[in-house]
Write a structure and sequence with these properties.
Layout lengths: L1 H21 L21 H10 L15 H21 L2 H7 L2 H17 L2 E20 L2 E17 L5 E4 L5 E12 L8 E7 L13
Antiparallel strand pairs: 1-2, 2-3, 2-4, 4-5
Helix pairs in contact: 1-5, 3-4, 4-5
């Protein structure tokens, strides 16, 4: 029973984060609360390792020698666009390949709820104003990269009959989101997964992956 309650809390929390990105009520209203995670607590050894890597262009050292910051930012921008479009289109197959398990469950539930109401979401990323890595490092067996996206977006939510419920095609909003990507240190491929989303107004942004 306790494990089911924890899963529900995490799922609701992640759905709220999706709502923060799209800017629409997607079915669940909760308080903005942080969920404690082992990734948010760094040991003294990990903090020492981070200090040693501060002046390095590769924050992972030998753990991931092929890392290139500029290349990662470009790939992250493409991932942002793909996730944005896949969520609007209800493309759960694409989302499943790019999101951690808990993130995928939250996105999938939001899509199912939207479909149940017969609503249509149309979104466009007009341009990226700024995309930068704000933190990266190693937490246990995980490598993580945290990126801040500042983008101009237009989002419209329509009813089944085509009436506009939220947003406007003529209104462009500047939004700031923080995406946390992770991969296992021993992963055989180059696949990074999105494991957490935060908005810039949220306090206590953690330096590490969130719940996976």
């Amino acid at each position: 029973m306790f494990s089911i309650l924890i899963f529900f809390i995490i799922t609701v929390y992640l759905i709220k984060r999706i709502n923060d990105i799209i800017g629409f009520d997607i079915g669940v209203k909760v308080k903005k609360e942080s969920i404690n995670s082992k990734y948010f607590e760094k040991s003294a050894t990990e903090e020492d390792d981070e200090k040693k890597m501060e002046n390095s262009s590769n924050p992972f050292g030998d753990a991931y020698p092929q890392f290139d910051a500029n290349d990662f930012v470009e790939r992250a921008k493409r991932a942002f666009e793909i996730i944005f479009k896949a969520y609007a289109a209800g493309d759960k197959s694409t989302l499943n390949r790019l999101l951690s398990k808990n993130m995928y469950r939250a996105f999938a539930k939001a899509i199912d709820d939207r479909n149940m109401r017969g609503e249509i979401l149309q979104g466009t990323i007009e341009r990226f104003v700024k995309v930068e890595i704000i933190d990266a490092g190693i937490s246990g067996d995980d490598l993580f990269v945290i990126i801040q996206f500042v983008s101009e977006q237009s989002n419209v939510l329509k009813s089944k009959s085509g009436d506009i419920l939220e947003g406007s095609h003529d209104f462009i909003e500047m939004r700031t989101e923080i995406f946390s990507f992770f991969r296992k240190r021993t992963a055989p491929d180059n696949q990074w997964m999105l494991c957490e989303i935060k908005d810039s107004a949220n306090d206590g942004m953690a330096s590490g992956p969130g719940s996976k």
